[in-house]
Amino acid sequence: MRLLRPSGLTVLSAVLLVLLPTLAVLQYRWVGQLSTAERERMQRNLANAAIQFRDTFDTEVARAFGALQVGTATARDGASEQYSDRYGAWFETAEFPDIVKTVYIVDAPEDGLRARRWDTALHRFVEVPWPGALTPLRARFEEERRDFDTQGGFSRRLLFLDDETLLVAPLRGFRGPAPATDRRPMPIFGFTVVQLDREYLASTMLPALAHRFFIHSEGDSYRVAVVESRDTSKVVYQSDPADPVRPDMADATQSFFGPRGPTLFFGRRGGPGPGPGPGDRQPRAFPMAPRDTLGPDGSADQPEDLGRWLVAVRHTSGSLEAAVASVRRRNLGISSGVLLLLSISVLLLAQASRRAHRLARQQMEFVAGVSHELRTPIAVITSAAQNLSHGVVGNADRVKKYGQVMEGEARRLSEMVESVLQYAGLESGRGLGVLVPIAPSDLLDEAIESARRSVGTSLQVECSVQTNLPPVSGDTTALVSAIQNLIVNAFKYGGDTHWVGVRATHAQRGRRSEVDIVVADRGAGIPADELPHIFEPFYRGQHAVGRQIHGNGLGLSLVNRIVRAHGGTVSVRSREHEGTTFTITLPAEPMDPRPTAVHGDAPAAAH
Fold it and tell me: Is the pLDDT of residue 326 over 50?
C-alpha cells in the first residue's frame, strides 16, 4: 500500500502550529524584560527631571539674589550706577524677573535700625517705615548689631528665616582704615534683604517649570505638587487640585530652594572672623543653614536633603508601576494580537489547503464523471451512425428508431454541455439574463415539460399551485433550469415508483412576501452525513455512485447558485427510506389581479 506524503503546505502549517506556543512563551518573557527596562527608564528620567526642576528653580533664585546684593558704596549713598546697571541687566536677562517683589537695605547709621526700599522709578533706595514683612526679624537684626559692635565683625550666625520669601545676606564690600594691629579693613554693618513674590512663584514660575519637566502632551506625564519641607500639609502649588499628590505616595520627591542648589548667602566659609581681604571684590559663597544646624564654630552642618520646599511627582496613571503595567498590557495585547492573527492565518491556510485538496479531488472526479457521461452518448451516436452509413439497417421502422436514439443521446449530450457552460458562467460572475415578472405556474409547466423531454414520458408529476399566487421576478431560463434539475433528480432517486410531487404556495414572513416552490420524492433519502455537501460543486453521494446513476455533480450546485442570484434560498429536508423534499423560496412581486389556474387535483405530500 502506497503511503500518501503530506504536502509542503501541510508540513509548514504543522510546524507553525508547534512554534506558536514557543513564541507565546518567549513573547511573555520578552514583554516582561521590556517592562523592567521601561520602569528603569521612567524612574531614571523622572529622577533627572526632578533634579533639573530643582536646579532651574534654585539657579533662578540664586541669580536674582546674587545680582541684587547691595555693596557698601550703594548702601552709603542710597544709589549707584553700578547697582542700577546690575539690576537692569538681571531684569532683562532673567527668565522669571517678577519673582522679586522688593529689595531692602537694613543698616544702623546711628543707634537704631533703618530700612530702605529700592525704588525702581527713582533708581535709588528710599527710607521707609519699618516694613511689616521684616517685623519678625527686627530682634535678630538688633542681635546681629550687638554682636557686630562687640566682636568687630559678623558672628556668622546665618539667618535661615521662617518666611521663605525673605533672603538675607550681609552687605558686600568693606570701608574704613585698617587698625594699627590689623591691616584688614573693618566691615560695616548692614544687610541686603530680597523679598520674593510667593504668589508669583506659586501661580507662574512653579507651573511653568512643572509643565517643562513633568507635564507633556506626548510621552510620560505626571501630576506635580510643591509643599513645604517641614510641614508637608502646607501646599505651595498643585498641578491637579482634584487629585492631589501626597509626598509619601509620590513616585519621586526632590528637596529644593535650599543648599543643594546654587548658594544664596555670600561671605567666607569657616569660623568667626572679620572676612575677606580688600582684594576679594566677589566674596566666596556659603550655603544657607538654619540656626539650629550650625556647628560650634558657626559652620553649616546641615542635612544632605535640606530644602525649604519639596516637589512630589506622581504619574498620571496613579504610579510608575501602574504606568509600566499599562504599557505591559498594551505590549502583551499587541503581541498577542499578532500571534492570534498568525494562528488564525495558519488555521485558515490549513483549511484552505484541505479545501483545495478536496476541490482538486472533486474536479478530478468531475472530469472522470463528465468523461464517462460524454463517452456514453457519443458511443451510442457513433455506433448508430455507423450502422446507418454502412447500410446495416434497412428497415424504415428501425431507421426511425435509430434516429430517435441518436436524437435522445444528442439531447442528453447537449444538456450536459449546457450544465457545464451554465456553471462556468455563474462561476465567472457573468450573472443572469434579463429579469422579468414570471407566474410560478408558467415556471412549473415549462420545468415539468423540460424534465419530461429529458427523462421520457414515464415521468408523472403531481402538481399543485395555490390560487392568486403572486409572480416572481427572474430569468425564466435559469429558474426553469433550476426547477427542472430538482424534478429530474426526484425522478432519478425516487425509488421504484418514480413519484414526484411539485407545489407552489405563497408565504408572508414578516414584511417579506415570498413564493415557495416545493419538489418532493419518496425515494431512499439522503444520508445525514451527506446533506451538508450536496450543494457543493462536483459532489456526488455514495448512493448515486454505487447505483451508477448518470450525473456530473453540478445539478444541485447550479440550483443553489441560480436561486441565490435571484435573492432566494434553497433548503432540503430528507430522511432515509422516507424521501427528500427541496424547497425553493423566491421574493414575490406585487400581486397580479388576474386569476391563476390550478394545476392538478391533489397537493404534493411533503417529506
Answer: yes
Rounded Cα distance between 134 and 115, Å, is 9
Amino acid letter for position 336 = S
3-class SS shares of the chain: helix, strand, coil, % to 5: 45, 20, 35
| pLDDT per position as a tens digit, 359-377 | 777 677 667 666 766 676 7
DSSP-based three-state secondary structure for 126: strand
Fold exhibited by the domain 429-587: Heat Shock Protein 90 (3.30.565)
What residue spans of 123-180 are helical by DSSP H?
Answer: 138-151
DSSP code of 248? G
* Cα 604–chain centre separation: 59
Q: How far apart are CA 74 and CA 76, in angstroms?
A: 5
User: What is the C-alpha separation between 34 and 28, in angstroms, rounded?
Assistant: 10
In the sheet that holds 569-575, the strands lie side by side as 460-465, 499-509, 512-521, 579-587, 569-575
Q: Using the structure block, give the residue that is written with the C-alpha cell 559663597.
A: 285
Question: For 524-549, what is each residue's pLDDT tens digit?
Answer: 888 888 888 887 766 666 665 555 55
Q: Give me the residues paired with residue 588 across strands.
A: 472
Cβ–Cβ < 8 Å for 81, 113: no
- Residue matched to cell numbers 568687630: 152
601 pLDDT higher than 80: no
Cα–Cα separations (whole angstroms), residue 600 to 35, 486, 503? 80, 19, 10
Identify which has the larger pLDDT, 126 or 474: 126
